Amino acid sequence: MKGSLKKDQVQKLVLSGIGFVVLLYVYFSFFLGPLNKGRATAEASMADLQRKLASSKSEMSKAVSLDGQAKTATARFAALKALSPEGAPIAWFPPRLKILFANEHIDKATVRLDGSTPYKEPEMADWNKFSWVIELPQTDFATLGKVLAQLENNEPLLGISRLNIRVSGDDPQFQQVNLSANSTLLK
Amino acid sequence: MALHLNLLHEEIAEQRQRQRDPLKIGSMALGGIGALMLLFYVFKAYQMIEIKSRLGSVQRDWAKVEPTVTAAQKRSAELTAIIGTTKVLDTIVEGRFLWAPLLQTLSRCVAPNAQLTSITGTVADDNKAVTLTMEGMAAGREPRAAAEELRQLLSEQLAQSYTEVKVEFNSLEDLDTLVNVAGANMAMARYVIGVTLNPAPPAAPNSTAPRLPKK
Known about the structure:
The structure holds two protein chains of two kinds.
Chain A: H1 7-69, H2 71-82, H3 89-103, E1 110-118, E2 127-139, H4 141-154, E3 158-168, E4 171-186
Antiparallel strand pairs in A: 1-2, 2-4, 3-4
Chain B: H1 9-19, H2 22-95, H3 99-109, E1 114-123, E2 130-140, H4 143-161, E3 163-181, E4 184-198
Antiparallel strand pairs in B: 1-2, 2-4, 3-4
């Protein structure tokens, strides 16, 4: 039979066609696919590293310049941080104030912790606002003014939010003082 | 004309048939395509090896500088945090209200014929307003005038250091009792003075004197 294919030849051709399609699938999926994928991953990693390398120089120069600029802030921060010794503030803050008052001959001063609240600012995550109630049972006005000036100078992170001065008993020379103060201290 | 007999006709036909066999042609084509695909794969694999080599080189470069860069980034973050915290702490330090200067001003205003029996002061949460309530007694021939004198002096003195100063009587009443001041009996008045002020200092007067027009 000249010019036409035999049945078994047609079968072979069809099978060969199917085999060819399978071969193409295997080639692209299992040979070229992983190769292309690996190449894309390597190129992405390389681009990322090159970007990091390029930015590393600016990062380092930025750190150096920031170090120079932040000298004042760093010194100031260290000084403010030094005002909060280690340990719970209730352990060291009231005695510190009592010594200050005692130096001005104000005895029997009491300093009580009223509460503490964290700051909302993210920069102040390590700091708390402590509220204190300070009672001075007997002092004279001039001494009170002097001791308050010392307190405000020595404790820059302390602010008096409420003050009450009233005559103490029968002696108008002496006053009884109640203070509400807030201090910012390390947690 | 000589008779030409082709005795191998069948064999030649079979040979031609074999040469035109589509299976054979298909196999050859398949082999060709397979060879091309293999070449392409080899080319791609070579490219891949080259990229891997470049990546390795970049990774080595990065490994050299990475500790320094990481340390620099860490230091930058640390310094930025310190600067931010110091700014907030400075705001707290500078924003607080100082009571000592206020008490000093009050002590300057109270005359010998006036007495303060109680002072209560509060600072608003935003540190923008201070409220004072002062109770006391004034003595004199005109005790109300003595109390008014104290109020005016307070207003005048406080306005030098603070803004939005308001000094007002909350109450002012005469008392029946007399008090002996420097050997003379004086009438007394009890007063309650309310003070509100803004801790911000008043604006400094303009130092440059206005130019006088030339005559």
